[in-house]
Design a protein that fits this description.
Structural class: mainly alpha
Strand content: under 5%
Number of domains: 1
Shape: globular
Radius of gyration: 19 Å
Helix content: over 70%
Largest sheet: none
Amino acid sequence: MLDSIAAEDRSLSAIGAVGWVCLAVVLMMLSLDLSAAIRPGLSRNMVNIQLCAALAFSCVTYGIARFHLPLRSAIDALALRPIAPLVVALAAAAGFTILFAVSWLSSLVEQRWPYAPEELAALRSAYSVVGWKQRIAFAIVTTALGPLVEEALFRGVMFRGLRFSYSRVITIAITAALFTLCHLSPRMFVHVLPAGLVLGTLRAMTGSMAAPLLAHMVFNGVSTFQVLAGTVAFESQESATPAWQGLAGLAGTAVCLGWLHYLVSRTPRQPTNLSSLEPSSSRDNA
């Protein structure tokens, strides 16, 4: 079952998507500069960084929805459709398993390009959480708010807008690439890109933003717990993650996505159980 393309919808090109993301980055940097002007040091605080990013991403998400999907409801524009319980479990499992692969890739990058002492000091400052109020705020913005605004932008309105012109594979690649570039640090690109590809695949398979949102929240939630528990202290170079853990994470993610693909292929005419597909382009007809 295919979604109808309303006459008022305007397709989003790759160049247009790049422009929107550049606007989001500019708004985020302006917000950080303004917060630093009000209170020095806030621009290096992770809670404030996430709040500034949430403000910028929310503005751009609204802009895309209004310009490219003007008459669609917020739920429809974001593709916040319900998903089956088993899909919920598989999405959560994919978010957990890809973390092992990402941690492995991150450790490889760190071994090749170690953090300088001043970089470690900046990371300790950004992730410094003192007192229960700060710990709660940190957990909320990193586990819930951050994934929500990022998924709303990349796997929500942007994914839908791009699907009017591009195939699922190209749309996944574009949103994953822009999601990666939004993290700004080249050191993070190697391990953020695979996560973006998995999140986009979940979105394409289910036709719902709920699946990648859940996976993203699980991914961030485990990382947040490690920071709050002191497992990641940024005191020195982290020990290398064993290759078997990274490969096991990749294998586990592949199993989750393969199982999900099987479920979707078995229930193509039951959109209430999994979700309806995105508007198709001519590239999908082959």
